[in-house]
Design goal:
Layout (H helix, E strand, L loop, with lengths): L11 H9 L17 E7 L17 H8 L2 E3 L2 E2 L5 H10 L3 H4 L15 E2 L10 E2 L9 H7 L3 E6 L17 E3 L29 H15 L5 E6 L11 H9 L4 H26 L6 E7 L22 H4 E2 L1 E4 L8 E3 L3 E2 L3 H8 L16 H4 L9 E5 L5 E7 L2 E6 L4 E5 L15 H17 L24
Parallel strand pairs: 1-8, 1-9, 2-12, 3-13, 6-7, 6-8
Antiparallel strand pairs: 2-11, 3-10, 4-5, 9-11, 14-15, 15-16, 16-17
């Protein structure tokens, strides 16, 4: 595959400055509380920030764009760990993936034998959990307690059968496998029995939409949570054939035409699900949240980096699309430019469903409901993205600033509102800020037992001291 990689420094800064001036515009101020909503979570795999039409010119996503216009868009949402399994663990629990002990994607096929997989090329030598830890509370658990019927559809990648969603707060599941990606996006999708009834050539996103629509139609008389995690737009890069043909008519070729066909297929699935909510009369009291687990496989303007190793903590790898729509409660067309984390989803859903997020310990996330409803702002001063693969391992975001930390002690500092392309390293020009954010990261690592052993000579791979991730 040919990878498109573009380093963007100049003219994209204009858009970045404009984006940075956007405040968290108010939502609807609350009068009498409305009925607790149905909730639909749409979690796309590897959908980059600039790959939705309302934030980039690369692909047409009319249904996602319409959904964005109907609610609030958070323009600076970050993965707590831009890697598949870690990001998902934080998303579903509201806890930081590093605190859960999941710092890399699940690699071991037998989690029962070995709870922690050793590092292979991690310079810090951190082991990483092979599954979501037993006892971890998910937004499925939380909403069950609030009287919701909960379902998880699609990708999981947080453990084998004993650690599937039905063991973590979901009454039912569909399309869940032990794998992190499909063998093909055209049926048959896997060599196992998952979706084995799909006619040959069925597109995977279409099958996921079919199941979601069937679930919605079967639950018109009870309050529900539908957690739908798409397998697209993760590789293999195989687009829906009709959309690929359309992309080629527009001048795209090869891999990019196929990828466009993947993005369009997910967008079409989103549109079909929204139509099902309309037809059943439930759209007006359904909160729909759409986001992605990490950035794109491709480097996309105006952001630097991608999900590919060594650049994943730059904006192109860690920053994701994020929008929430709730008719009559969130003012349409509103925007928030304050930094948020994917771990904020758990407490937001709990509070929207009438619960109290503070009853759940160890949360990294902060509820976004106050800003969504115009009652307040984003209640976090800074956030951390953390992954343990490479020399580049952590990012600290505070307001317009972002520190990129490296195992070898080399740190970079960017003003990401003025310099979205992260071209101008300000670490030397802002030594006090660099030291303060570096110390904050060190204190946070120490609180989790993630600090390296004293006198470790990286990249020697010496194990860290006292690493004790909680259950």
């Amino acid at each position: 595959m040919n990878r498109i990689k573009i380093r963007l420094c100049g003219w994209f800064r204009i858009g970045a400055v404009l984006a940075g001036t956007i405040a968290c515009l108010p939502g609807l101020t609350a009068g009498e509380p409305a009925a607790r909503p149905n909730i639909v979570v749409l979690f796309v795999d590897d959908l980059g920030w600039a790959e939705v039409g309302f934030q980039g010119p690369h692909h047409q996503t009319p249904h996602i764009d319409a959904l964005a216009r109907s609610g609030m868009v958070f323009t600076r949402a970050y993965a707590a760990s831009p890697a598949c399994s870690p990001s998902r663990s934080g998303f579903v629990t509201g806890r930081h993936p590093a605190e859960l002990g999941i710092v890399r994607h699940l690699a071991d096929r037998n989690p029962e034998v070995r709870e922690f997989a050793p590092s292979v090329d991690d310079p810090a030598g951190l082991p990483s959990r092979n599954r979501l830890p037993a006892g971890a509370q998910t937004y499925g658990h939380a909403l069950q307690r609030l009287g919701y019927h909960t379902a998880h559809h699609g990708k999981w990648h947080l453990g084998d059968e004993k650690y599937h969603p039905i063991h973590f707060g979901f009454h039912e599941q569909a399309g869940v496998t032990n794998r992190g990606l499909a063998v093909s996006h055209l049926a048959p999708f896997w060599p196992d029995q998952t979706y084995a009834d799909a006619p040959p050539g069925t597109y995977l996103a279409d099958r996921q939409a079919d199941d979601a629509i069937a679930f919605i139609q079967a639950n018109t008389r009870r309050r529900f949570l539908l957690s739908l995690w798409f397998y697209g737009v993760h590789s293999p890069v195989i687009g829906r054939p009709d959309f690929v043909t359309e992309a080629k008519r527009r001048g795209m070729t090869g891999e990019m035409a196929e990828f466009d066909g993947m993005v369009r297929a997910v967008d079409d699935a989103v549109g079909r699900i929204l139509r099902a909510l309309e037809v059943t009369g439930m759209r007006d009291n359904t909160l729909v949240l759409l986001t992605s687990d990490q950035g794109s496989y491709f480097e996309r303007p105006p952001l630097r980096g991608s999900k590919i190793r060594t650049t994943a903590l730059f904006e192109g790898g860690a920053r994701v699309p994020f929008l929430v729509s709730w008719p009559g409660r969130i003012r349409p067309g509103t925007t928030c430019a304050k930094p948020i984390s994917l771990t904020d989803v758990f407490p937001t859903l709990v509070e929207a469903a009438g619960g109290d997020p503070t009853t759940y310990p160890k949360l990294d996330g902060r509820s976004l409901l106050p800003v969504l409803l115009g009652r307040g702002g984003v209640a976090r001063e800074r956030l951390i993205s953390y992954r343990s693969y490479d020399n580049q391992y952590a990012a600290v975001v505070e307001g317009p600033w972002k520190l990129i930390a490296h195992r070898d002690g080399h740190h970079e500092l960017y003003h990401v509102l003025n310099d979205t392309a992260e071209c101008s390293d300000r670490a030397a020009a802002e030594p006090q800020l660099t030291r303060r954010l570096t110390q904050y990261l060190a204190d946070w690592e120490d609180s989790l037992g993630l600090r390296l052993a004293p006198n470790t000579q990286l990249p020697a791979g010496t194990l860290p001291r006292a690493w004790r991730p909680g259950p």
